[in-house]
Structures are given as C-alpha cells and as structure tokens.
Design brief:
With 110 residues, the chain is of the alpha+beta class. It has two helices and four strands, in the order E-E-E-H-E-H.
C-alpha cells in the first residue's frame, strides 16, 4: 500500500507530564534521485510552552535525527513555514544544527 507505518514518526512533547506539542514526520525517496529524505509534516509547541521546553525540543529533534538515520535518510529537514514566529523558530532550528536552505513563498486565497 501507499502508507508504510515505518516511514512515519509521531512523537509528543511533554513538559512535567503535560502535552506541550508534537512532531509528525515522514521519510521518502527524493524526487531528484535515489536518496531517502526525512521531513517534518507538523512540528509545533503550544503557545504557553514556547520558550519553556528547550530540553523537550532537543530530545525530540535528537529522536527525529536518529529515526531518520535508521532509515538511511541523506537529508533531514525541519520547516518553519507557518508564519507563526518564523524567524524565532528558524533560529532554534539553526541552533540545533539544521541549516537554512531556500525560502518558502505562500499565496493566501480569499
């Protein structure tokens, strides 16, 4: 089938036992070659926990990197394209070792 469970990762972020956010990612073959890539589909921290859960974010991104490596992903992406605290999120991702590549351009249809 099209859905292969081991190609998906879903992890919750918890702070003091309370749900604070989540990471949902997938691993797929690159459109431009034979290499595997990992990419987040959804990565968020609830507003009341932003700036307060650095350890949990570090742990979940470490788990994401490990998961991607186990699937032989040559590229592992994190995206900051929601328009919510984009620069702040991008700064966090860069401090975690993810390089900024390109840009995202969006059109809102009313």
């Amino acid at each position: 089938g099209l859905i292969v469970p081991e190609h998906y990762l879903l992890e919750g972020i918890f702070v003091e036992g309370r749900f604070a956010g989540a990471l949902f990612a997938h691993c797929f073959k690159s459109f431009f070659g034979k290499d595997w890539m990992a990419q987040d589909i959804l990565f968020f921290v609830l507003p009341e926990y932003r700036g307060r859960c650095a350890r949990a974010v570090l742990q979940i991104t470490d788990k994401y990197r490990q998961w991607a490596a186990e699937r032989n992903a040559k590229i592992t992406d994190l995206n900051a394209g929601t328009g919510i605290a984009t620069e702040r999120t991008a700064d966090v991702f860069e401090r975690l070792g993810f390089a900024k590549v390109g840009s995202l351009h969006s059109l809102t249809v009313h």
